[in-house]
Amino acid sequence: TQLLEQSPQFLSIQEGENLTVYCNSSSVFSSLQWYRQEPGEGPVLLVTVVTGGEVKKLKRLTFQFGDARKDSSLHITAAQPGDTGLYLCAGAPPLDYQLIWGAGTKLIIKP
Amino acid sequence: DVKVTQSSRYLVKRTGEKVFLECVQDMDHENMFWYRQDPGLGLRLIYFSYDVKMKEKGDIPEGYSVSREKKERFSLILESASTNQTSMYLCASSLIEGHNEKLFFGSGTQLSVL
Fold first, then answer.
1. Most distant CA pair in chain B, distance
2. CATH code of the domain containing B61
3. Is B9 part of any domain?
4. What's the confidence (pLDDT) of residue B16?
5. Residue A57, H or E segment
6. pLDDT per residue over B11-56, tens digit each?
7. Do A88 and B41 touch (CB under 8 A)?
8. Which member of A56, A109, B22, B76 has the greatest number of CB atoms within 10 A?
């Protein structure tokens, strides 16, 4: 069974600080997605990374897919209260149609 | 924009009741999913459907059934609700772009079974 481990599970930091969230597995994924979920809403897709070593930027968010396609990271620069939410990673196993989900990182940015 | 609508934001039911959770999507997506979300466990797939009248079990189908009579509507049924089914239920539809599947979620239904 493939697993995706996210760390940390919970992070509370001050506005303006930088942070990194990790998503790790011992298995290879053909692609990996990051979602953000705000309270009372469903997850919303932020980005999909496909190629080993790929880096994608979305304003202050930087996403990286590991060279071996087993792990990924999300780095937020100068975090703002609007970044508060639950961040979920989801990996697509090769030759399988079901996404594997991480347990999520709950992020709180204090003003 | 894709819209996935879940019929209820909050539901309170009693043990043993039959519960229907409805989900409608407006983008003609073929694939639809039901997940439950519990703190610390992430999203767990209950059932999914790739076509009308077609259903496939996910990771935790026990105690649930589904119905997909029309392409836009995917219903989750709890035949006899139990307290361990108290959870947030999320419906999603998906769009295939190349080799990637992009999920669009509804706002969720928080179900409490007393």
1. 44
2. 2.60.40.10
3. yes
4. 97
5. strand A55-58
6. 999 999 999 999 999 999 999 999 999 988 889 999 999 999 899 9
7. no
8. B76
